[in-house]
Write a structure and sequence with these properties.
The chain is built from one helix and no strands. It is mainly α and 40 residues long. The protein has one domain. The longest helix is centred in the middle third of the chain and has 8 residues. The termini are far apart.
């Protein structure tokens, strides 16, 4: 299994969006998003 870490995503990004994007390149077993509140 390979993990890919993607940063600088929109807060509107969903796990379904990421899955659909990366499945174009192969099977995706699991998608997890960790979003932190922006610093304001």
């Amino acid at each position: 299994m390979t993990n890919i870490f993607v940063g600088n995503l929109s807060f509107h990004t969903t796990e379904q969006n990421l899955r659909a994007l990366f499945e174009q390149f192969g099977a995706v077993d699991r998608v997890s998003t960790l979003m932190a509140a922006p610093l304001t």
